[in-house]
Design goal:
The protein has twelve helices and six strands. By secondary structure, it is an alpha+beta fold. It has a four-stranded antiparallel sheet, sandwiched between helices. It is globular and about 55 Å long.
């Protein structure tokens, strides 16, 4: 029986006390695994974004293949994460939601805008064009980034960079930052077909729910730092103050001082502090209420 082709907004649950991507190398691996899944799967990728503690995709295909795409992505990245950080099952408890998108009602345009505006809503940047870890700088952008075709890279080097032995199309481009450029596999024509013009895409970006969240945020005027920056600072503070690389083994008073320093230096809210510290929201609130 022929499976029905549809469009899907794929969203993983936010990890409240953990990060998917702790540094730029993690993001690069994540970007390459998107390319791998695009190559081996039976779906078209119209848009995606990798955030610190969750990911979003807009996919075209049937439900089974869309689910296989995100499950495969999570599985590959979880193995990499476990090998690097010796932490098991970080993504096993991270649920996935597949929301069908009707081809009318402007649902596809709104979903792509929602995905791309995640970085703006998080106060990381002022435009999706400025965010590297996704497809927000691809649509209606005819300026292609520099890179080298995979055919011009040795098999050993490709496997080392991609962290797997999957053979990708040899005309795909590896960017200067050593991840496959989304231009190689993104269904740019399909996504642009629904927006039709850059002006219309900008309308959906500006009117998306994520844009409204950004405008309505009471913390709009506060500086915002990426989770990876705050996480690195937390380790540095631990080393400087207490001679260790993490909160493990510190007394409650010492943990309180580290978290207080993070809040003071970065104006971080409790949710961000909890993520980078690996604590629950309630635990973090208790520590910060002590100061």
């Amino acid at each position: 029986m022929k499976r029905e082709i549809n469009f899907w907004l794929v969203t993983t649950e936010h990890l409240e006390n953990q990060l998917w991507f702790r540094d730029e190398d993690d993001f690069k691996v994540g970007m390459n695994y998107v390319a791998v899944q695009a190559a081996v799967g039976n779906v078209s990728v119209l848009a995606f974004i990798l955030m610190s503690n969750h990911v979003h995709f807009v996919l075209k295909g049937n439900r089974i293949d869309a689910m296989a795409f995100i499950v495969g992505f999570k599985s590959r990245y979880a193995k990499y994460f476990q090998h690097k950080y010796s932490e098991k099952e970080i993504l096993r408890r991270n649920g996935v939601d597949l929301k069908p998108l009707p081809i009318d009602e402007e649902a596809i345009e709104r979903a792509i805008a929602y995905v791309h505006m995640n970085c703006v809503a998080a106060n990381i940047c002022s435009s999706p064009m400025q965010y590297e870890w996704g497809s927000g700088n691809i649509l209606f952008n005819r300026t292609r980034r520099e890179g080298i075709k995979l055919k011009d890279i040795s098999l050993r080097k490709r496997r080392q960079i991609l962290h797997c032995a999957i053979q990708l199309p040899l005309d795909w481009i590896l960017g200067l930052n050593e991840y496959i450029l989304p231009d190689s596999y993104l269904d740019i024509e399909g996504a642009e077909f629904y927006f039709r013009t850059p002006k219309r895409m900008n309308y959906f970006l500006a009117s998306s729910s994520k844009a409204r969240k950004r405008l309505e945020s009471e913390e709009d005027s506060l500086p915002s730092f990426r989770d990876q920056v705050v996480s690195a600072a937390l380790q540095d503070i631990c080393r400087t103050l207490f001679g260790c690389n993490s909160l493990a083994g510190l007394s409650a008073e010492q943990v309180t001082e580290v978290l207080r320093q993070i809040r003071f230096r970065f104006s971080s809210d409790i949710r961000q502090i909890a993520r980078v510290a690996g604590l629950s929201y309630s635990e973090t609130a208790v520590f910060l209420d002590q100061v």
